């Protein structure tokens, strides 16, 4: 048995085959050499056969001829050569046997028992589309040399000794998720380089206002650059209620707003009876405010529900008796109001107090002013003529207080931009055949293909760059829609400090990480995140050799030595190695590719990036609002100010929407002038309205309810809305009307106007007022930003104030090494 096992171990079939072939080949070579030397004479014996004049003899004839003719002196030299040929063949055979033994004993380089994880090569990066010239900047190739040092303040910093050959970028439709500890270089390595190279639209969640100061100056050269800071004195404005579309979509839009109002923190399972009942009341209140009140803002909703001049019962009865439509009250408002009136006094008090608590943040004068109008529309992000760079700035001091406001607007943006997808453009078959015939037969009387129908798809890609994404709480819609955002040309760059921070808001089984095709990590500071990163990198199969010696203990040498090999799996990086990852390294994990160990990007050490960073941003809000000047005043609900029953006291008109019409109450009541509000500008005076008996009706905005005739006169307990005539404003007054951004006691810094003829100077000819007699209804509809299909067309004034051309592209040697196309 031992002999059999030993023979199986050493006598491998390949060894036997090589030995036989080597010996037979050596004998045959020596035999044929002697036969050719002796000219195949008959004395050599009978050959095995003849081919092309050559005789072939048995291999062992070399020994016969050596024995027979060895004493023949003239043949000694030839016989000696044949013997040397035989020895050389045998020696070569022995060397081949040794080589086979070594190869057999060498460990296999493709062991896959426990895993095949490895680091990506340049071919892998090229195949994965990471060596492109556009897209989100992830890292740079590992041939870069970064040196770590400690500055005078004791902070660890990096300096770039040698840049990498290429930047690793991702320009596909998939999303990118970055998780790295605080102060690890996420902003300098990913966020800043991306904002300084991305030429599409971008939505930035900027916590510290650093990104605005560093990147807005360059981005304003080719895009509308807008900063919305809810608690800042000088900020652009956005009114979420003006995104509600009058008509079939109004209830859906309002319910989406209410859904975020009653869930300010995003905690799962936190909706009780009081919140649900408050949501129903808020839906009715918002619809009523949009239809019949002047202050169409969330602050106006809060004021309407807590009006000190009437009780909540009177407020609900007002909502129930108001004629929102020609047939009576709005059905949703009527049913929700009746549901509230059916509650007991204590329950109704709890519902109302809960609803008012959700609107408490909008009582802040700064928040109320910054949500009183809209200097931009959601559709502008992807449908404007030029890209839009929208920065949401939220100081850390107001983070917890103002997060519900940011959550509401983000949910609105995500919902609105993913409602419809542009349909493919098709031409009728007869037009295609006519075009083919005209080209084939060269007939001039056959028209060529007409222009294709207008494509309503987005004009720009949108990058949603959300720094410290988990601080926004759980966005349920965002988690669900992340899977299909890419189909609407929306790419997300989400940044968190750790995976635990993400799981705290979305749970351990969330789909945020699953829907992120690209993941970038700078290491970890906690064991759970380090273990998860180690699992993402995968396992490889390694072989270890165990050597043992045996023999007498007191002998001068050990008699026997034995070795054995064993395969086992090893993490490409263990959790401990992830936690001790060098500060210069970055891990890039792309689906379908081996993981890449790269180097961080330092934007301040790159000449191409540093030349674009820290340019002066457009700090003046008037300069930001100028981008969409013609759409500041008009909105879809501007003329929807309906009258209430005659017994109801008139509601004062608020100047929040500065183009609002005064409401005439039934029974000959006169219009109530608007009281002075905080920060209200000195707008043009309104002309005297006509008498209540007048049958003149306003030009209503095109909507399902406004398209129907409204009862006029003082009969039926209600009065019709009468459009007053307004005096034409001077250019200075019109500019102040359109740019109502400041309080009466707070003046903005002076705005340096461009020379005459400069494109940046706002037009001195104001757009016609929507209430003037010579205003074209279709023109005002266009300028309001609302098309017939509900979309937002781009006005011709979008290019007013066209930015200066981008400076010459950087063509430094480094940029050429990183790609033929400059940054």
TrEMBL record:
Instruction: Specify whether Cell cycle is a keyword of the entry.
Output: no
Q: What GO cellular component is one of the record's annotations?
A: plasma membrane
User: Which portions of the chain have biased composition (kind: Low complexity)?
Assistant: 688-702, 710-723
Keywords, A to Z, come to: Cell membrane, Membrane, Transmembrane, Transmembrane helix
Give membrane topology per the record: Multi-pass membrane protein
Q: Where is the composition biased (Acidic residues)?
A: 794-807
Instruction: List the residue ranges of the region (Disordered).
Output: 641-823
Q: Which SUPFAM superfamilies match?
A: P-loop containing nucleoside triphosphate hydrolases (SSF52540)
State which residue ranges cross the membrane. 77-103
Report the Pfam families cross-referenced here: T4SS-DNA_transf (PF02534)
Instruction: Give the location in the cell.
Output: Cell membrane
Q: Which InterPro entries match?
A: P-loop_NTPase, T4SS-coupling_protein, TraG/VirD4
To which protein family does this belong? Belongs to the VirD4/TraG family.
Please state what the protein is called.
Answer: Conjugal transfer protein TrbG
